[in-house]
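Please, is this right?
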Amino acid sequence: MSEVRLDKWLWAARFFKTRRLARDAIDGGKIHIDDVKAKPSKVVTPGLEIEISRGQTDMTVIVRSVREDRRPAPEAQLLYEETPDSIQKRETKKDLNRFSRAGFQPADHRPNKRERRQMTKLKGIFND
């Protein structure tokens, strides 16, 4: 098999759990092929560059092989190769996210009545 629909390929490569989710992502503009918004019926062939946005994760992959059926994850990973630039951007974003949360310490308890009143008073001061 040398070509397959984009929504089937994304499902087979395990980027999305169902073809419906893949189709929704494509229709929502989360998938671009060669910097152009893709359509679900776009034919995927080896060598194609696909940009995938899922949540806060952006990936750029190059299609190495095409499959129409869904196989185990180790086999699905052989269908594509992530570009080095994409890997570097993803790692940088992950590090920045981790460092931004480094000083955050969640409260050890729920605020009591007195603390809630103090928070309300403080918010009132800054909202005026």
